[in-house]
Amino acid sequence: MSIFGKIKDAIFGDKDEKATAPKSTPANRPATQAPRPTAQNAPPAKPQARPVVDVENHLDAMPGADRLNWRTSIVDLMKLLGIDSDYESRKALAQEMGRNDYSGSAEDNVWLHRRVMSEVAANGGKVPADMRD
After folding, report:
1. Where do the structural domains in the chain lie, given as residue ranges?
2. Taking Cα atoms as reference points, which of 86, 80, 88, 87 lies closest to residue 117?
3. 117 SS3 class
4. Which residues contact 35 (CB under 8 A, 6 or more apart)?
5. Which of 53, 74, 85, 110 is deepest in the core (most CB within 10 A)?
């Protein structure tokens, strides 16, 4: 999984988490009862709109947010989300964001943080304008 994918999952929740009811069929179902829908005869599922996540409030509510400068630091943001924040991880994230000349400088890290927050906003997060590109 991509590093940005991990960031999205940590903020929005894993999109693959699905609540499924246990499948049970009564052994003595009356013959007149209509069969239950199956994958072959069920109507197509309607796409569910993902609710907008207020990213600032969500991240502020996470344990440790009060001790990290996640609003401006890509390293602290990644730490808060439980993602490895070492140079190699940040370099790989920068490449995902379209930058191949990442050196780990303060300017690069500021750019990376703002770029990540812009992508989070583009994927349905409510992110304050001062945190985006």
Report:
1. 50-133
2. 80
3. helix
4. 41
5. 74
Backbone dihedral region for residue 21 (phi beyond 0: left; psi -120 to 50: alpha; all else: beta): beta
DSSP-derived letter for residue 102 is -
Q: What is the DSSP letter of 126?
A: E
Render pLDDT for 93-121 as a digit per residue (tens, 0 to 9): 999 999 999 999 999 999 999 999 999 99
C-beta separation of 72 from 114 below 8 A: no
Beta-carbon contacts of residue 9 (< 8 Å; ≥ 6 apart): 1, 15
Comparing CA positions, the residue from 93, 10, 84 lying closest to residue 53 is 10
| SS3 annotation, 28-85 | CCCCCCCCCCCCCCCCCCCCCCCCCEEHHHHHHCCCCHHHCCCCCCHHHHHHHCCCCC
Two structure tokens written together for 2: 């991509």
pLDDT digits (tens, 9 = 90+) for 10-68: 999 875 544 333 344 444 545 555 555 555 555 555 555 667 899 999 999 999 999 99
